[in-house]
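Ticket opened by: R.M.
Priority: normal
Category: complex prediction / small molecule

The reporter submitted a protein together with alpha-L-rhamnopyranose and asked that the result be attached to this ticket for the collaborator who will pick it up next week. Submitted input follows.
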Amino acid sequence: MRKNILVIALLAAVIAGGIAVFLVFGEKTPDALIIAEETGVSNDNEKIIIYFIPKNLGNPYFEALSTGFYDAIAELGEENFRYVYIGPQTAEADNQIEFVERAIQDEADAIFIASNSNTALNSVFDEARGKGIRVYIINQDIPGSEAHRDAAIMPVNFDRIGGAQIELLGEQIGYEGQFAILSATVDAPDQNTWIGLMKKELEDNPKYRKMELLEVVYGDDQVEKSASETKALLSKYPEMKGIIAPTSVGIFAACGVVRESGMAGKVKVTGLGLPSEMAEFVLDGTCEGFQLWNPPYEGYMAVYMIWAEKKEGFTPEPGSKFTARKLGEHTIQPNGQILVLEHPMLYDRSNIEKYSVLF
Ligand code: RAM
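Result attached by the on-call engineer:
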């Protein structure tokens, strides 16, 4: 298989003195190293160089998103691309700056980044764009800093997420009772957008007047921290009826804690999760249902967008259109966003087994 060949190539390169790669990249996932190694060798001028910088490495959600890049690259011809998946170990606001700088040094064509902050990367984005590198936010946008990016690939229409998440928990707890939100990092642009929309929905929609948001806690998209925050919520609020974790790491960790504490069914856990991680909790009843979109589609779309620019004269401006083969034609909206899908999807007992093998 391609990966096996690449692993052998990687080992050879490392033994031959490629240790510098480890010094520069640190402890990254095998894919980051394999791909970076593979394509540093020849014909780089001919290749489209793509960097994908997730919030942090080791989060299965972003690994799922990354598979979409591979899918599109395979369709368009591996020889045409160099793809580098690289990023920090943890999701602090300014941890990604060095990876953007790395992409600039590498003369990337496009950087796709799930930014950990709305503002911390603005000057490094400006620097990249000043050198002709496209800066695309992926998996979210950077509200208030849109002038510092070329466009944003949105997995779904974020305006729908606040209402969708509150309704989902509402259904599960009979539209009555206390609940908490378990988020990722304090600065996370996507989380903060959704939480803002959830609060608005609670205030504006009389349907939810008997639902009370206790507090928002932060698990930093780390399993252990998310688990300890969940434990603290359970002991602090014995009447709590539910937890919304709009993060795949958080919902997974919260389900584990709720099940271990014998609270499954009494405290409903829902939010946004990855079907492959959530299947066991859906099948054993710890989670009745949760939502998500299709993370690999985002990576797939990203590759087709930069391909359209390089080969078909597309420019990332409002109104511009491009076609991403199996996902069809997409248009950049007036706000610079591209929606992969409009609505989130519900994952529950009826479909979890089908999707858990995909992502
Ligand atoms: C987490 C991340 C990501 C979010 C998903 C749903 O892994 O916080 O940004 O979109 O979950």
